[in-house]
Amino acid sequence: MSDAAMTKLKHLVQNRRPYHMLEAPFYTDPDIFKADMDLIFRRHWIFVGLEPDVPEPGDVMNVKIGDASILIVRDDDNNIHAMHNICRHRGAALVVDEKTSVGRLVCPYHSWTYGLDGALLHAQYMPEDFDASCSGLRKVHLRSVEGLLFICLAENPPEDFEEFAKTAGPYVAPHDIANCKVVHESDLIEPGNWKLAVENNRECYHCSANHPELTQSIYEFGFGFDATEHDPSRQALRRHYEDMVEKDLAAWEAAGLPSVENNQRLEAVSGFRVGRMTMDKAGESQTLDTKIASKKLLGNFTEARLGDLSIHTQPNSWHHLMSDHIVSFAVFPLSANQTLVKTKWLVHKDAVEGVDYDMENLTRVWSETNVQDSRLVGLSQLGAQSPGYVQGPYSKQTEGQVEQFAAWYIARLKAHLCA
What's domain 158-418's architecture? Predict the structure, then answer.
């Protein structure tokens, strides 16, 4: 980053207006995009997938974060490793597919061969004093939080991630992610900056007008929507929702399911929010009829109506864990105006398609919602690129979580720029 670009970024960070959209360059400037990749995505814990992405020994997942290609590999002892996808000989990529299964990791260039843990096993024609133990694949920090996989590309990752693992782990554990399977994946390139994709996710102000499928099961009140209601029918709906929340949270907590919201996005380096939300109608799952999509419940669950365990992690993920299935989302920036949103649907590993679940019913709500959100993100990007763009105000009643994300982002930039 040039000195001029750095000075500009520092000025923008210093002058950020609370409870307002970020200034346009944060969404459009290629230099700021590069700073985001360096200061955010290469220095924080990034969600990359789930343990069922690599269910068997030898399974490999290739994750790309900017220019970095990282291999997530399960070894013969069922340990999972994260390693740079770079041969230690002359730098060739070892794996080009997004997912594959191997016995060993073999470089296609000169056949240097590595174990599933990254140790160099074979390098032909090297000198006698060559020390293979010093030429294993470069490891990347990896943590599994009850099956949710995070990596950090920094040499010294943020230590407060332990607080997230300690807090969120008990919420996630009953859903038994390790004994789930990924049954559907969707890659959607949204025509907007990654921050617009995250901001859109952090509020439900737009839900009733844009998400007819999703709002069959969710209440906007569960997503930070706290507007004063004047319409009598809306007032009654709000009272009904609050009564349900009080009863549901008490019942779920009594059953041993942590449910009360814990929100540390604003103050934590490894920011997060976790909490179990009441859902509408049957209240079982995020489907059109709000009933379970899979007859085979997760973990040891015997009760279908367990709400939606909603998890947000800074900077790039959100998740919905229900009694019968899980929907997991990850955001990967591609450029200043393009973002890859990866969505995965999981069910119990023993669930059988056509018997226990119907794929269309399982995936329809979020498949439709993702397309709708992509359109909205694209509209926001068009606005940010216009010379007429000015910073609009957030609603303090409905967009508090958007402000929390924006404040977190600015605080992290400020911390790194000052350092």
Answer: Alpha-Beta Complex (3.90)
